[in-house]
Amino acid sequence: MNLVKQVLISVSTRGFATSQMHLRPKPDPRQAELMARSLPKRLPLKGVRDIVVVSSGKGGVGKTTTAVNLAVTLSTMGKNVGILDGDIFGPSVPLMMNVTEVPLLDERNLMIPPVNFGVKCLSMGLLVETGPVVWRGPLVMSAIQRLLKGALWGPLDILVVDTPPGTGDVHLSLSQHVPISGVLLVSSPQRVALEVTAKGAEMYKTLKVPLIGLVENMSHVICDKCDNRIELAQNSTKDFAKQLGVEVLESIPIEKEVMQCGDSGTPLCLKYPESQFAKAYRNIGQKVIDFLENKRTTVT
């Protein structure tokens, strides 16, 4: 709870004005320059080589399931991996990673992320005891900054960041404070989910953050009697991905074991390593690694 108090105190001392303001549609050149100076600088996290954000504008499409299984899969592939739960209001990573202990602090007041399944984990769910987190935007942004830069993450090859739905404070705070290597989009195949996911993708394009690709979740069912593939929606995801200029990395089926493993705190990729689900995530993990290596080579 001391960590939460630190965040509250740091924000409350700034003094935010509540008076009504009338803003111009666009700032003039001088205002734009002053605003740019006031923005935080993107500084790398010490000891972290790449940051991969798992995102979708839509809720309920399996972002946390994707983030957790991607993180543990990358770990089994020989990478040093951490996972940051960026969903301040609805943290799910502690349950799905079976992590409950409060992070310890080192002599520099940096949090030491607990480790499970070979992955370093940090979440607001480990810092608050019970009840909902009822915070305004400034508190949320300060909390994200604290989780990012107030923790001893390194040495890590990849930090996977699970994000909440929408295009709000968490996404802006992440993109403003640290250099993001790439964004992994997640969506189910329904049109309503794809259209909202497109908004999230456009937000990151505006922020000049590269898109790694799209994971299509809950696209089909594999019959356990005859192994036939039963599609649940029209094949519109590929057209959608083409319009965004990204690749569909994998189409993940609906499996009852996903829910069971999530509730029990054991990622499915670890419990059933020979399943089609686990094979799909090994493919996703390799494509993420290839993307990061190609990006590094291009920059060099």
What is the topology?
Elements: H1 2-12, H2 29-38, E1 48-55, H3 63-76, E2 81-85, H4 93-96, E3 104-105, E4 111-112, E5 115-116, E6 119-123, H5 137-149, E7 156-162, H6 169-177, E8 182-187, H7 191-206, E9 211-216, E10 220-222, E11 229-231, H8 237-244, E12 248-251, H9 256-264, H10 268-271, H11 276-299
Parallel strand pairs: 1-7, 1-8, 2-6, 2-7, 8-9, 9-12
Antiparallel strand pairs: 3-4, 5-6, 10-11
Helix pairs in contact: 1-5, 3-11, 5-6
What does this 3D model show about the protein?
With 300 residues, the protein is an alpha/beta fold. The chain has 11 helices and 12 strands. Helix 1 packs across helix 5 and helix 5 crosses helix 6. 41% of the residues are buried. About 6% of the residues have low confidence.
Spatial strand arrangement across the major sheet: 5-6-2-7-1-8-9-12
Order of helices and strands: HHEHEHEEEEHEHEHEEEHEHHH
Low-confidence stretches: 7-24
Main β-sheet description: 8 strands, mixed
Q: State the distance separating the first and last CA atoms.
A: 43 Å
Structural class: alpha/beta
Helix count? Answer: 11
Secondary structure: helix percent? 40-55%
Rg, Cα atoms, Å: 20 Å
The rough form would be described as globular
Overall pLDDT: 83
* Oligomeric state, counting identical vs distinct chains: single chain
Number of strands: 12
Task: Classify the beta-strand content into a percent band.
Answer: 15-25%
